[in-house]
Design brief:
The chain has 725 residues and is of the alpha+beta class. It is 43% helix and 17% strand. Strands 3, 4, 5, 6, 11, 12, 13, 14, 15 and 16 form a ten-stranded mixed sheet that branches. Strands 1, 2, 7, 8, 9, 10, 17 and 18 form an eight-stranded mixed sheet that branches. A two-stranded antiparallel sheet has the order 19-20.
Length: 725
């Protein structure tokens, strides 16, 4: 009865607001429809490169040999790539340069959601803020478009909002229903209310105590780095000269004969791979560099004030068993008033984000306090039966959100809630701020403003409904053809289909025969993930230049499990070395650079600190038990264990393990990196395991299993059970 009464109150509380929002929604929907009527009537665009993508070398030649581009876009994140795609599909001669790799910055480190922003709508209603309402409305329109143009990379995701107080049920229900109404005809699926029993059935890990019920609504989810890459590759296919690892050293200027003022007319660029410098001339230069907005603006005018106020957002990845396969969770009010999402992603669980001021850096690192904050918030919502362990964190990363102030505003200190487009006196166009979901609308506004400011003519925007790389001929059952035609494992086929779309067949064609009965082709890079070796070869065609490009953005291995990524690295470097003709020295440099990336940027550093910073807090009985286990390997009682000691024990129980693997296993525990594990290091490990700071340690599991089976001579398993950083 109480549940029904709450539902009735919901209708009374939300009715008026819903009606108002619905009216605004219909009005803005009509305006949007009339604004984009030209898109439906436009002739189909033709791909300049429908089959093979131009090589990076040919793209660099185009940059160097083209007398003058119409538009040069600086920055290969979502917004910059979106600007390049918008420009080239307006039949403008377009260039795109990126200092690092496409999506190497903020665009690959998001929450992976395509959303309008429930909390922004709440603020819009509470403060009667029409501007904020329109921001949500625009984002919901863009959400729908993005799900349509890249169906292989994105999908609707139900997100549960658990309710623990009766009065919150009608309050949240009204807000979520307004979210549906603002989306109008572009609503993914209608939200609904769940009883306590049904909520626990769908999300059994949820804390039961005081749970009243739950509300489920829908937003979109995507593979952000692959989506960014798809935008850039689509621009390249339509004819944009697109090059990663191409840094802007300085802006070029010339004097306008009519006004006598200096105007930006291009950029001096450097190929980061070779060091060669060259000029790229363009009628219009667009600065779309995210957190690095001000560094490019200062190339134009050294005295100009900064507008970017960077904020760091940390995310963590934990094993998939922490959440259902297809249901996310929203914590609408954390202990410090922020919002945290808890979402299934790539068969793992992603949680975040934090929000704290930071310095602009190309290599942001996750802080331990942010990791622990997220874990503590997760504990508040999960059942006490689920032990949330620090050691279960498989990866952690920090992304820099480029919040901006509007230089055209009277209040230049106030953070702009949306994006800004600014055009300097010399004609440099800057697009900054905004959110992933609205990249296309931001690009459209930027190009419209640029065309007007530079008095250039072009066709209207053509990117609404324009299919991205791999999306055109993708179907939900495409993976079945991959299994049937090529003999791929089903999990691998599903991964290829959802990553490459209709280009998955090109990846499958490169896959080598395994020599097994099944699968026929497709050797995995690492056993527990569906990434295969031919993806490395194909990634080079997609402009991958480094091993980091492979583990971070062409595949997402580094974001999912740093230990697995490090295991896969030698094989990846070998394949790339063969394809790109690397020397042995170059291979070593690539391997070391990738390991440093995992250590500092993907959370591996914080894992090692869990051991080094752990005090040994064991009972005397525990110490004796672990001493006996240690001496099973250290039979000479030297006080340390080496690879040779471990091999002797394994041989006595008839187990063969590759020596390189044994070195890797010991290296996880060898804190002082002297090639051996001392007894004190072993006790630190076991203390950390007991406290939950480390989980899935292969060394601890190997020793425990060997001790239990020495007499029985059973097989010893040293497979990683979850890793943990």
């Amino acid at each position: 009865m109480a549940f029904r009464r709450a539902a009735k109150r919901t209708i009374l509380l939300g009715g008026g607001a819903v009606a108002a929002i619905y009216g605004l929604s219909q009005l803005s929907a009509y305006k949007k429809q009339t604004q984009h009527m030209f898109v439906d009537a436009a002739e189909p665009l033709k791909l300049l490169h429908p089959d093979e993508l131009p090589s990076r070398e040919s793209q660099l030649c185009a940059l160097q040999n083209t007398k003058e581009f119409d538009v040069l876009v600086v920055g290969g994140g979502a917004t910059g790539s979106g600007c390049a795609l918008d420009a080239v599909t307006r039949n403008l001669k377009t260039a795109l340069v990126e200092r690092d790799d496409f999506s190497s910055g903020t665009s690959s480190r998001s929450t992976k959601l395509i959303h309008g922003g429930v909390r922004y709508l709440q603020k819009a209603i509470m403060k009667l803020d029409y501007e904020q309402y329109m921001m949500v409305k625009e984002a919901l329109h863009e959400r729908s478009n993005l799900l349509d143009i890249a169906p292989h990379l994105s999908a609707p995701l139900p997100i549960m909002l658990p309710v623990y107080k009766w009065w919150q049920l009608p309050y949240y229900w009204a807000g979520i229903k307004m979210y549906d109404l603002v989306a109008g005809g572009q609503c993914l699926k209608s939200s609904y209310v769940l009883s306590k029993a049904k909520a626990l059935e769908l999300f059994p890990m949820l804390k039961k105590d005081k749970l009243v019920g739950a509300i489920v609504y829908y937003d979109g989810q995507h593979n952000d780095a692959r989506m960014n890459l798809a935008i850039a590759l689509t621009a390249a296919r339509y004819g944009a000269a697109t090059a990663n690892y191409t840094e802007v050293v300085r802006l070029l200027k010339k004097t306008d004969p009519e006004t006598g003022t200096e105007r930006v007319c291009g950029a001096r660029c450097k190929d980061v791979i070779t060091g060669k410098e060259f000029d790229v001339r363009a009628k219009c230069v667009i600065n779309a560099t995210g957190p690095f907005t001000d560094s490019v603006r200062k190339m134009d005018d050294e005295k100009i004030s900064n507008i970017c106020q960077p904020s760091a957002g940390v995310h963590i990845v934990i094993p998939g068993y922490y959440s259902p396969d297809n249901m996310g969770l929203l914590d609408p009010s954390t202990s410090d008033g922020r919002v945290i999402f808890f979402l299934p992603w790539e068969k793992m669980t992603i949680a975040g984000t934090t929000d704290s001021p930071t310095d602009v850096t190309p290599h942001p690192m996750p802080r331990e306090e942010d990791v622990n904050f997220i874990l503590n918030e997760i504990r508040n919502y999960l059942s006490p039966d689920v032990e949330v362990r620090r050691g279960d964190v498989l990866a952690a990363w920090s992304g820099i959100r480029p919040l901006v102030t509007d230089p055209n505003s009277k209040d230049t200190q106030s953070i702009c809630r949306n994006h800004i487009v600014n055009i300097s006196e010399s004609g440099l166009v800057t697009i900054a701020g905004g959110k992933w979901t609205t990249y296309r609308a931001m690009a459209e506004e930027t190009l419209d403003s640029a065309m007007k400011a530079h008095k250039m003519k072009s066709s209207k925007c053509n990117t609404v409904g324009l299919m991205l790389e791999g999306g055109k001929d993708w179907t939900p059952t495409l993976y079945i053809r991959l299994v049937q035609d090529y003999g791929l494992e089903m999990e691998v086929a599903q991964h290829l289909a959802s990553t490459y779309g209709d280009k998955a067949f090109d990846v499958a064609k490169l896959a080598k025969v395994t020599g097994k009965r099944w699968p026929v082709v497709g050797k995995r890079l690492v056993s527990e993930f569906p990434y295969i070796e031919s993806e490395v070869q194909y990634a080079i065609k997609e402009y991958a230049c480094t091993a980091i490009d492979i583990i971070a953005r062409r595949t997402r291995l580094g974001f999912l499990n740093v230990q697995a990524a490090e295991e896969a690295l030698p094989g990846i470097v070998e394949i790339m070395g063969k394809e790109l003709k690397w020397s042995e020295q170059k291979k070593k440099e690539e391997l070391e650079a990738a390991k440093q990336f995992l250590y500092y940027e993907m959370g591996s550093k914080t894992r090692s600190e869990q051991l080094t910073n752990t005090e040994i807090n064991l009972t005397p009985a525990d110490v004796d038990r672990y001493k006996n286990r240690f001496h099973k390997f250290d039979k000479q009682k030297k006080g340390f264990i080496t690879v040779v000691d471990v091999k002797h024990v394994l041989e006595s129980i008839s187990v063969q393990i590759d020596e390189n693997t044994l070195h890797d296993i010991l290296n996880e525990v060898d804190l002082n990196k002297n090639g051996q594990v001392e007894f004190n290091e072993f006790l630190q490990l076991m203390s950390a395991v007991q406290k939950g700071r480390v989980s899935g340690s292969r060394f601890a599991m190997l020793m425990k299993t060997a001790e239990e089976n020495l007499d029985e001579r059973d097989a010893v398993s040293v497979d990683r059970s979850g890793g943990g950083v």
